[in-house]
Write a structure and sequence with these properties.
Two copies of one chain form a homodimer.
Chain A: H1 8-24, H2 35-45, H3 52-63, H4 72-89, E1 99-100, E2 103-104, H5 106-110, H6 112-137, H7 141-154, H8 160-170, H9 177-202, H10 207-234, H11 237-240, H12 246-249, H13 255-259, H14 261-282, H15 288-299
Antiparallel strand pairs in A: 1-2
Helix pairs in contact in A: 2-6, 3-4, 3-9, 3-15, 4-6, 4-9, 6-7, 7-9, 8-9, 9-10, 10-14, 14-15
Chain lengths: 302, 302
């Protein structure tokens, strides 16, 4: 008997609850860590957010009809990477933000030095989490090595950090759409690609399936970022929970700036269609959640 | 025929040359990385230093009579971790240093934002290097997982970053020798312990040998830091290449502050003796270089 799938909203809510429960105990309580450092790490880790990346880790494993429990450590790892990148991005030397998601940023609460260290510690701890899928769920060392290699590349200089550096350098003048795409692909897509591949690897994906997950991630990552640009321009401040038109005010170039709002919307739709197509063609046993998540991201209003 | 060992000075010089040669090509040239980010990473990576930690990785592998070639990626990894920690420590929000080893610090050359990102990228790239010992030298995935687990703990919140946080918090008043020892053990010893264990793991060390390497590292790491405190107090500015008595001027508590200079010297000797003893007792086939390195560190005048 085939049970009907819950709606994607319910699926996301359930996963967020589960992920946040696991995050709470993700730094071993028996470890001796200076209290303010531990607090600073937990403050940002538990500060909410969409939890999109860890959900994608779990959904990718489920698309292969695997129990997603073994993928949970990698899901937590990617949220740690995402969180550290936000802490460092918010620093005075970087974007100098006082608030994120309505809460004071890490350095406003714990000071700059501790915020830098909390970011460093979360980045390092992400790799500890990856190994836990071997320790707790019997994932092989070869798979761990593959995942560590993916993460070090996609979150590192040729990946997320490179995208962040390009973004910062670009504030002195991005002049071409190609430069903007480079920033989006690395700053956003790379970690999404990692999430999908990590879930896939843990569930024993074939090379063909891994390539499809990578293409899916690249497309929805770019679509996500263009959608962000669009929402910043025409979104609802209430739903977004932040002021709109900040890109215009900060003179940041965006997709709508280069190709207009209608073409940007069309691009989001095209990328979502291509993303879904690659999953369908690669023959996953249970692709539904991934396909629903792609649509969910395209239709979001915040 | 047993060839006589070169002096330890020659051994160190040869290893430094080799390590610096390998560091030059440690970030793949085919990777697309924003030029200033790559430059900032290489600037600090190639800015000199004792290269003590990578030498210990190689020496530990050699103590097990292994060819140290397979240990080189891990040696480069630990130097990347050490380098990132210096870049972040030098930031205005941390120690606010303009010079290190006679050269401008990273943020003075590349700006604070790029220095933060260069540190993040080096930390992430260290894990990439660890996996290269599997890709290039056939080290097993299980060993890679063990090394990644060690590194994530010993360089993370319960290790080096925790030591750095405690040091920073302690500047508001370390009152007990135990607190100072906590700082030294984590800020300095932990990464030295990692270096020795990584070399040991790659060379197939037994659990008994790994435990001996860990004890050796803990002891020489603490001795190294106490020796630093002593040299800061009574060393030769010319040889040290930096002003002495900086701890006194900065009102930093040190081992000599707590127990006096003679007792501090005796402590360095005792720790060195204990370190060597643990190596001798664990039965390494070629322990000479590790033993010589312990003596070399104890007798150093800079």
């Amino acid at each position: 008997m085939i049970e009907p799938l819950n709606g994607i909203d319910t699926y996301i809510k359930e996963k967020v609850l589960l992920i946040e429960q696991e995050l709470k105990t993700s730094i071993p309580s028996q470890w001796s860590i200076p209290a303010p450092l531990r607090e600073a790490m937990m403050y940002s880790l538990m500060a909410g957010g969409k939890r999109l990346r860890p959900i994608l880790v779990l959904a990718a494993a489920e698309a292969l009809d695997a129990d997603s429990t073994a993928a949970m450590p990698a899901a937590l790892a990617v949220e740690m990477i995402h969180t550290y990148s936000l802490i460092h991005d918010d620093l005075p030397a970087m974007d100098d933000d006082d608030y994120r998601r309505g809460k004071l940023t890490n350095h406003k609460v714990f000071g700059e030095a501790m915020a830098i260290l909390a970011g460093d510690a979360l980045l390092t701890h992400a790799f500890h989490m990856i190994v836990q899928s071997a320790r707790k769920h019997g994932i092989s060392g070869e798979t761990i090595a593959d995942i560590v290699e993916d993460l070090s590349r996609l979150a590192g200089a040729p990946g997320m950090v490179g995208g962040q550096a390009a973004d910062m350098l670009g504030e002195q003048g991005v002049t071409r759409l190609e430069e903007l795409e480079y920033i989006h692909l690395h700053k956003t897509s790379d970690l999404i690609v990692f999430s999908l591949k990590a879930g896939g690897r843990i569930a024993g994906a074939s090379d063909k399936q891994l390539a499809a997950l990578e293409h899916f991630g690249t497309c929805i990552g770019l679509a996500f970022q263009i959608q962000d640009d669009i929402l910043d321009l025409i979104g609802d401040e209430q739903k977004l929970g932040k002021p709109v038109q900040s890109d215009v005010k900060q003179q940041k170039v965006t997709y709508p700036y280069f190709i207009g709002i209608e073409a940007s919307k069309a691009k989001v739709e095209e990328l979502t269609r291509k993303a879904k197509q690659s999953i369908v063609q690669a023959g996953f046993p249970k692709p539904e959640r991934l396909l629903q998540l792609a649509d969910f991201l395209m239709k979001r209003d915040h």
